[in-house]
Amino acid sequence: MTQLSQLLLPENRILTGLVCAILLGLLLAMVLVVSGNRRRQREAEERAAEADLRLSELVRLQAEMQGRLSVMAEGLSSRQSELNQAVSQRLDGMTHRIGASIAEQTKSTHENLRRLQERLAVIDAAQNNIQTLAKDVVGLQAILSNKQTRGAFGQGRMEAIVADGLPQGAFSFQSTLSNGLRPDCTIRMPNGAPPLVIDAKFPLEAWNAHREAAAPDARKVAGQQFRRDLEGHVRDIAEKYLIPGETQDMAFLFVPSESIFADIHEHFEASVQKAQRARVVIVSPSLLMLSIQVIQAVLKDQSMREQAHLIQSEVALLMEDLGRLDDRTRKLQAHFLSAQKDVEQILTSSEKLTRRGARIEALELEVPGAGGAAAEKTEAVKAVESRTGLLKLRVVDDE
């Protein structure tokens, strides 16, 4: 056994070493496992503690966030209420302004509509007047298109001007001359002078053709035709109505339009000069009216001269009345001078009486019952005053 144990001893030692090694390995493994578990447990505890810290921090942050959110909510609610109040105030003000503006705009619109209605009424009246004037123009065109009616129109205008400017008996229409012709009008001249002849016929057809011609050649031809007609009519007037000793050596050719008269003097000056050399004066309505006024003034002057002897007799009677008035005025002046002298003498006497009364009023009489030195002093003073009074009385007596 001892030998066997001795033989088996190395193997036992090996097994024991192996067992010890295994046990040590197991122990190390267990130690490592335990240390790893502890380390993991510590790490888990640390993580848990860190998680708790983080959770508590999160809770704190959440509480702070909730507080801030509540403060922000309160601020937002107050701001919202203020904003709502401001918006409501602004809306109220804007509504008031809009209402006032709408009312003002409505008032202005009504006023503009009223003015527009008034203007439309004026326009309607003007349109009616224009329509009436258009009818009159159409009628005038119809009158001027006919030669006889056109002559009657010029004759009517001339007769109206003459009848308005001269008294009855100073003119005549369609009177017959010694050659059997009948001019449109004859005007009686003052101082027994021959009458003045006025002709109201005017070659308006040629003038209308000249005015309506558009082409230059046609206008030139129409102007030549009007010039021939005008000069021919002037020659007819000079031959028919200028009768020596019976009519004036000058006659009037009446043109019933101021525009035609101006155009004739502007574009047909040679024809106007020929008419003047033929002693025929072309007159417009205004020139005829001016000539009529001059003739009327001359007729009034002639009437005044015819009544000159009556005026002289009346002036002589007026001078006699003026002489009597002058004599009576001089007598009254003499009475006034005499009364003035008496009044001056009365004033002199009253002034003397006034001066005498003033001097008497200035006198001071002696006062009785005074004694002593004061009395003597008073008597001395009054003596002087009495002397002055005597002096004054003496001066008064001298006067």
Question: What key phrases describe this protein's structure?
Answer:
single chain, 399 residues, mainly alpha, 5-stranded mixed beta sheet, 5 strands, elongated, disordered N terminus
Can you walk me through this structure?
There is one protein chain. The protein has 399 residues and is mainly α. The chain contains nine helices and five strands. It is 80% helix and 5% strand. α2 (147-165) packs parallel to α7 (285-306) and α3 (204-212) runs antiparallel to α4. It is elongated.
Put the structure in a nutshell:
Helices cover 80% and strands 5% of the residues. The protein has 399 residues and is mostly helical.
**Nearest-angstrom radius of gyration?**
71 Å
Low-pLDDT stretches: 1-5, 364-399
Q: How far from one another are the termini?
A: 218 Å
Biggest sheet features: 5 strands, mixed
Strand content: under 5%
Q: In DSSP terms, counting alpha (H) and pi (I) runs of 4 or more, how many helices?
A: 9
Q: What percentage of residues falls in helices of 4 or more residues?
A: over 70%
The 3D shape can be described as: elongated
Strand order of the largest sheet: 1-2-3-4-5
Number of strands: 5
Average of the residue pLDDT scores: 75
Order of helices and strands: HHEEEHHEHHEHHH
Structural class: mainly alpha
